[in-house]
Each structure stands twice: as C-alpha cells, then as structure tokens.
Amino acid sequence: MMYNSLYGQSWGQPLGLGIGTMIGIGLIAGLLFLVILALKGYALWHAAKRNEPWWFVILLVVNTMGILELIYLYFVAKLWNGKSNSTSTPTV
Q1: Which of 10, 40, 55, 76 has its CB 3.0 to 4.6 Å from that of 47, i.e. a possible disulfide?
Q2: By C-alpha distance, which of 23, 31, 52 is closest to 39?
Q3: Closest of 92, 29, 40 to residue 66, by C-alpha
Q4: Nearest one of 27, 66, 26 to 44, comparing CA atoms
C-alpha cells in the first residue's frame, strides 16, 4: 500500500494550478472587488443624499459582498424598479 499518495497525487507534486490560472483568478477577484466597491459607493451616496444616517452607517460597516447594497438600492431607494421613494428633498 502506498502511503505517500493522496487521491492520486504524490507528496511534493504541484496541484496543477499554473500561472495562467493564478492570473485568471486574480483578474476575476480584482474585477469583483471593483464592482463591489462601485456598488458600495453608489449606495452610500444615495443614503447620504436621502438623509438616511442609519442606512449610511450600516452600509459602511457591514460587508456583504454587494448583497446589502443591492437590497437597499432596489427595495429601499427603489432606483431600478421605476418608483421613487424620496423621503426628503435633497439640496444640491
């Protein structure tokens, strides 16, 4: 019985992740980071503009990979469903 193999891989052998795979994973992670950062900034901007300090703090502190920001923008601020739920008149 071979004690130096685990699922067909010998100890000390590479796992098969080449440089191309690592670059691809890095690019996808970087793109995902930029999308989440943009979504967080957009949601924070709308929470500040609508004078909702509790939403601003929650969105700033809680990291949910964009899920909470999408919930806020779609259901609370109602930006993408054609309805406007403005609780205050913003001053520019």
Answers
A1: 55
A2: 31
A3: 40
A4: 66
pLDDT(79) > 70: yes
- Cα–Cα separations (whole angstroms), residue 59 to 5, 52, 74, 89: 48, 11, 14, 21
Distance CA 72, CA 68 (A): 6
Q: Are 44 and 56 in contact (CB under 8 A)?
A: yes
Beta partners for residue 73, in sequence order: none
Instruction: Quote the CA–CA distance of 82 and 33 in Å, as a whole number.
Output: 28
The pLDDT tens digits of the residues spanning 3-28 come to 555 555 555 555 667 888 889 999 99
Alpha-carbon distance of 12 to 57, in angstroms, equals 48
